[in-house]
Amino acid sequence: MASAIEQLAKNVNWGAFSKAKELKQRLLFVVGALLVYRLGTYIPVPGIDPHVWNEIFTQKGGGILDMFNMFSGGALSRMTIFALNIMPYISASIIMQLATSMSPKLEALKKEGDAGRQKINQYTRYFTVLLASIQAYGLAVGLESMQGATGSAVLDPGLFFRVSTIITIVGGTVFLMWLGEQITARGVGNGISLIIFAGIVAELPRAIASVLELGRQGQFSFFALLFLVVMITGVIAFIVFMERAQRRVTVQYPKRQAGNRMSGGEMSHIPLKLNTAGVIPPIFASSLLLLPLTIVGFSGASGGDFTATMARLLQHGEPLYMLLYGALIAFFCFFYTAIVFNPEENADMLRKYGGFIPGIRPGKNTADHLDYILTRITSIGALYLVFICLLPEFLISKYSVPFYFGGTSLLIVVSVTMDTVAQIHSHLIAHQYEGLIKKAKLRGRKG
Hints:
- With 447 residues, the protein is mostly helical.
- The protein has 17 helices and 6 strands.
- The protein has helices at 2-11, 21-40, 50-60, 64-71, 75-78, 87-102, 104-110, 114-144, 159-186, 191-216, 222-244, 280-299, 306-313, 319-340, 343-352, 364-399, 407-446, and strands spanning 147-148, 151-152, 246-252, 255-258, 261-264, 267-273.
- The chain has a two-stranded antiparallel ribbon with strand order 1-2.
- A hairpin with a 2-residue loop joins strand 1 (147-148) and strand 2.
- Helix 1 (2-11) runs parallel beside helix 17, helix 2 runs antiparallel to helix 9 and helix 7 (104-110) crosses helix 8.
- It starts with a helix and ends with a helix.
């Protein structure tokens, strides 16, 4: 993150920033939209007793609730209209990507260009509403069955509470989906990613305060706190390095003669990212592992049976949890990469436009070569993700470090920061080019 910002400062004339009115308007729009989002995380769902819910959430914490609460910026712990945050939309998008790679009809629709992509986006929105409705109904039913020491979490259970909760929470999710699309279109960066980023960053001061409180209570020594700061800084630097790493596959285009003119003969490359899957593998792996633990917690299962034993073994820091978590991250890394990058499709595109990889025959040999390279770099990417995600797990289990310092949250924060900085960089460069073109035109008229 730091290196990306330093690179931006070196390459861009920041004097142009004060003149880039469009960029300033875009940044102000992003800030305003994120303020609206943060305001919504404090508007409670009607019919909930906040004190009882806070007590229940504290007791049931430690499972998937903590992860969803992190992504929602604390909205779930306060049970507000944005309790589900943008997670149903992300789930719908991932499922639609999987369906597109498996369904010939959706794949054909994707190849139609803009019109096809718009239809797929529309299907994703409908699927988001469906997923959010199912999750909101489950949340409403679950809330009605929850009892704290001072009473029920719901003031007046019944059909009206369920319907109002579904409408409120689904409406909040749809609003965030729309807000994310507006940020992408009228702001800077990816709107959905920025909403998750804002939720995580907003809760970081509280997480830092809790770590300092642990130090004040004697659970953390000064050197342990210093080591934690140095380690987090090192992990961030490592994430930046690995996220920017890519394998460039050289592509040669043959020379072509059109009349007296010779065209083509250029060298290009296919950039293959080391971590093509991004933050999807840790999110999927966490969800699958923590879901059984959360179900056991809500069902009130007692010890002595198989379910309670498995719940104990799947706690943070347990060897079985670590083993399964690392294995699932590696699996989803390969699985998702295979979906988003199709070697055969890319080989066909190269052959269609006359490109070829030097020393490799077009067609199947090119596809096999790309698949071989992708498998090797994905192996490195999977090891990197496993390391980044398991290292904070030791801190969370041994020293009670807040969940916000986990590998998934650091990955999201660093990745979104790098992407946003890169887009700001692009806007500034484009503004400088526009200024140069205008000056050149003026000089041409004077001449």
